[in-house]
Amino acid sequence: MSKSFRELKVWQLAIDLSLTIYKLTAGFPKQEIYGITSQMRRASVSIASNIAEGSARGTKKDFRQFVLIAKGSICELQTQLLIARRLKYSDLESFNIAEQQAMDIAQMLSGLSTYLAAPSPLKLSN
């Protein structure tokens, strides 16, 4: 993996999503600070963190494993967003923005996982 994780669009968008989640949860009820607020923040940070860690592992197989963990975190976050939305912890527009970001990242992670699972092309020597 010659590309730095910082160059990966999916990592950049995951960082943006974390910022969105931190801003969104800042307005949640104070009794949720150790509940859904903490859960959502950890899940959002986990997405970018796993992409970064996986990219540093050196093999496509290892990278893919961390991408799959990031996919799990995005699913966790999507579930938590739905719960917070139903509890009416913020306005619908804020939830819609976060949910769209999460869906875009989930799609990109699926594509990255598929790419990493594909066999590498054979390199013919001269």
Explain what this protein looks like in three dimensions.
This protein has 126 residues and is mostly helical. It has one domain: de novo design (two linked rop proteins). It has helices at residues 9-26, 36-55, 60-86, 92-117. Helix 1 (9-26) packs antiparallel against helix 2, helix 1 (9-26) packs antiparallel against helix 4 (92-117) and helix 3 runs antiparallel to helix 4. It is elongated and about 55 Å long.
Oligomer: single chain
Global structural class: mainly alpha
* Major sheet: none
As residue ranges, the low-confidence spans are: none
Q: How many structural domains does the protein architecture include?
A: 1
The total beta strand count reads: 0
Mean pLDDT, rounded to whole units?
A: 94
Which of globular, elongated, flat, extended, rod-shaped describes the shape? Answer: elongated
Number of helices: 4
Q: What is the CA-CA span between the terminal residues?
A: 23 Å
The CATH topology label is: de novo design (two linked rop proteins)
Helix content: over 70%
For this structure, what is the CATH class? Mainly Alpha
CATH homologous superfamily grouping: 23S rRNA-intervening sequence
The second-level CATH architecture is: Up-down Bundle
N-to-C order of helices and strands: HHHH
Estimate the strand proportion. under 5%
Radius of gyration in whole Å, from Cα? 16 Å
Element layout with pairings:
Layout: H1 9-26, H2 36-55, H3 60-86, H4 92-117
Short description:
The chain is 72% helix and 0% strand. The chain is mostly helical and 126 residues long. The mean pLDDT is 94.
